[in-house]
Design brief:
Strand order of the largest sheet: 3-2-1-4-5-6-11
Radius of gyration: 19 Å
Order of helices and strands: EHEHEHEHHEHEEHEEEHHEEHEHHH
Number of helices: 13
Bound molecules: nicotinamide-adenine-dinucleotide
CATH topology of one domain: Rossmann fold
Largest sheet: 7 strands, parallel
Helix content: 40-55%
Length: about 325
């Protein structure tokens, strides 16, 4: 049997680099796109173990460029499309770049897989497209209500994927992860912002709103959800949208308290006004119902919030990892 070839956009990023590892562990060869940059770095891919990288061909490219996407997908058995601009605060400041990357970039992926007759596209959505939960837990039938330009650009991409399946029978499946955390995440998200500041010795934690609740999922579980929809029988997943989350609701404040306890610190929390979002844009509640994904693929999360936090704390306590972050600055 030949080794299946997976092509991954956003492979240089947080979830993408964990997905590359999961794909290699499940017997794939991977063609990984890292975003072109003048330093020639491959993002987090540069930190993967050599035995993983033996199975990975990394190409520099850009999803905004149709040609580089065509080259990436050529001959792939499955394309995992994760590349995106993801920061909500930066989407207030630079919304055009979100449309170009997240909407036009996804259109380029769709055109490329259509042209190459790729057997499967796994597209990445986000729980942010639901906005503050109107009913809980959130199923895939919950209304879409975008509260940030980021969410709107992702919903636009989701609709393009649905339209390609309707119009051209494009064999696509959309995975909609809820909030993911773990090693390699950037300081833009709350869990690494807390752990990073504490690991750097901060006695005062500078944070935004502590009231919103989230369904926090450890990144290895998110990566396994991608592999699950990428490898399940087509009849079970193609043309469908799947939530991925744990079904556990935790407020940001509760997560902060748990981290402080696990890291054995008495740090005090200080509200940082620049980290607060406009009231109408803050998504106050997200809680996932992932039963559709479980029923279709058998996937379920393997980590609790606490065990995932343990892994994440160990990562940030390693000085070599911590040195990659600016923990004192507010990163958007
Ligand atoms: N982190 C979460 O909690 C979460 C939750 C739901 C969905 N998602 C989705 O998961 C995906 C990955 O997110 P992440 O958290 O790993 O973020 P990330 O920023 O670490 O990864 C995104 C990657 O996309 C790449 N990229 C950006 N613009 C590009 C371009 N023009 N061309 C090529 N590559 C480009 C970046 O280099 C980056 O590494 C995104 O689609 C995001 O919307 C993330």
């Amino acid at each position: 049997m030949t080794t299946p070839l997976a092509a991954v956009t956003g492979a240089d990023g947080f979830i993408g680099s964990h997905l590359v590892q999961a794909l290699v562990a499940s017997g794939h060869r991977v063609r990984a796109m890292a975003q072109y940059n003048s330093w020639g770095t491959h993002g987090w891919l540069d930190t993967l173990p050599p035995d993983v990288l033996d199975q990975v061909d990394t190409v520099l490219g850009d999803v905004r460029d149709p040609g580089s996407v065509q080259d990436l997908v050529a001959g792939a058995d499955c394309v995992y499309h994760l590349a995106a601009l993801i920061a909500i605060p930066y989407s207030y400041r630079a919304p055009h770049s979100y449309v170009e990357t997240n909407v036009s970039g996804t259109l380029n992926v769709l055109q490329a897989v259509r042209r190459a007759a790729t057997p499967r596209l796994v597209h990445t959505s986000t729980s942010e497209t639901y906005g503050t939960a109107q009913t809980v837990p959130i199923t895939e039938d919950h209304p879409v209500n975008c509260q940030s330009p980021y969410a709107a650009s992702k919903a636009g991409a989701d609709q393009l994927v649905a339209s390609y399946t309707a119009s051209f029978d494009t064999p696509a499946v959309t995975l909609r992860p809820f909030n993911t955390f773990g090693p390699r995440q950037s300081m833009r998200a709350v869990i690494p912002a807390v752990i990073g500041q504490l690991a750097a010795g901060a006695e005062t934690l500078r944070l935004g709103d502590l009231r919103p609740t989230r369904d926090f999922m450890f990144v290895q579980d998110t990566a396994q959800a991608f592999v699950a929809v990428g490898t399940a029988p087509g009849a079970d997943v193609l043309g469908r949208v799947f939530n991925a989350g744990t079904g556990t609701e935790t407020s940001v404040g509760e997560a902060v308290r748990l981290i402080a306890q696990l890291m054995d610190t008495g740090a005090v929390v200080e509200e940082d006004p620049q980290r607060l979002r406009p009231t109408g844009s803050e998504v106050m509640r997200l809680l996932c119902d992932a039963s559709r994904l479980r029923d279709a693929t058998g996937w379920k999360p393997e980590h609790t919030l606490e065990s995932g936090l343990d892994h994440t704390i160990r990562f940030f306590r390693d000085p070599a990892n911590l040195a990659r972050y600016r923990t004192a600055a507010y990163t958007i």
